[in-house]
């Protein structure tokens, strides 16, 4: 079952956490500070664009010196990557949660993940970041590279690994290329919704629209790859 693999990983993480708990009952002050910097940098990038954001501006918003900021991040590009990785971590959490909650049923897991994924990717903040990358990647190729490497590619890797478990449990056809299947599932979920959002043709989709879009995506995916 898909669930068995997920629970095994979850129990391993819990075990590791228990070992660390005596010495790590809370995040260190440095970790908290880093998280605060990343959150404020995220807001600054969205508001001012990549070119319009400087390390000095972020430092002022954080409430410290630029030297303090450089203790955490060596460059604006590194800080931008951290912003993308923060969102990527949310998506990994969605994959793991969907796998565990599904009770081992692939269709249920895909539906749960798909709905949460689309809700996150199509919210105003994510759309703003994507528009930022597209508009400025010509002048600053590192933006597009960061979005792809730390965001899109890494997230596809999480979905690919999830589908590999499903294939091993016999829920996908034995000839399924899980990397291709992962890419196609994500594209099926996004469909025209993301394009319409990026062009401001539609507002942020409501829950019913997302459910319908993901249900159609899952049905198509299962017909193509389901065992």
Describe this structure in words.
The longest helix has 28 residues, at 141-168. The chain contains ten helices and no strands. α3 packs across α4, α5 (76-101) runs antiparallel to α6 and α9 (178-198) packs antiparallel against α10. It has one domain (2-26, 76-225): Tetracycline Repressor, domain 2, CATH 1.10.357. With 227 residues, it is mostly helical. It is elongated. The model is unreliable at 9-18 (pLDDT under 50). The relative contact order is 0.11. It has helices at residues 2-20, 29-48, 55-62, 66-72, 76-101, 106-121, 124-136, 141-168, 178-198, 207-225. The protein starts with a helix and ends with a helix.
Topology:
Layout: H1 2-20, H2 29-48, H3 55-62, H4 66-72, H5 76-101, H6 106-121, H7 124-136, H8 141-168, H9 178-198, H10 207-225
Helix pairs in contact: 1-5, 2-3, 2-5, 3-4, 5-6, 5-8, 6-9, 6-10, 7-8, 8-9, 9-10
List the main descriptive attributes of the protein structure presented here.
mainly alpha, 227 residues
């Amino acid at each position: 079952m898909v669930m068995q693999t997920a629970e095994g990983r979850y129990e391993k993480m819990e075990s590791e956490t228990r070992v660390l708990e005596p010495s790590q009952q809370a995040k260190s002050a440095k970790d908290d500070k880093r998280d605060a910097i990343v959150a404020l940098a995220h807001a600054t990038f969205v508001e001012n664009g990549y070119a319009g954001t400087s390390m000095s501006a972020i430092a002022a918003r954080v409430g410290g010196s630029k030297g303090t900021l450089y203790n955490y991040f060596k460059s604006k590009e590194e800080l931008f990557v951290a912003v993308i990785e923060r969102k990527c971590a949310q998506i990994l959490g969605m994959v793991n949660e969907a796998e565990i909650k599904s009770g081992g049923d692939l269709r249920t897991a895909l539906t749960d993940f798909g709905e949460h994924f689309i809700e996150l990717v199509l919210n105003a903040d994510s759309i703003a970041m994507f528009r930022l990358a597209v508009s400025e990647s010509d002048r600053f190729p590192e933006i597009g590279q960061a979005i792809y490497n730390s965001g899109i590619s890494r997230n596809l890797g999480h979905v690919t690994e999830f589908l590999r478990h499903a294939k091993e449990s016999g829920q996908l056809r034995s000839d399924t290329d899980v990397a291709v299947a992962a890419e196609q599932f994500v594209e099926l979920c996004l469909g025209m919704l993301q394009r319409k959002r990026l062009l401001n043709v539609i507002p942020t989709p409501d829950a019913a629209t997302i459910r319908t879009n993901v249900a159609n995506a899952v049905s198509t995916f299962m017909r193509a790859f389901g065992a």
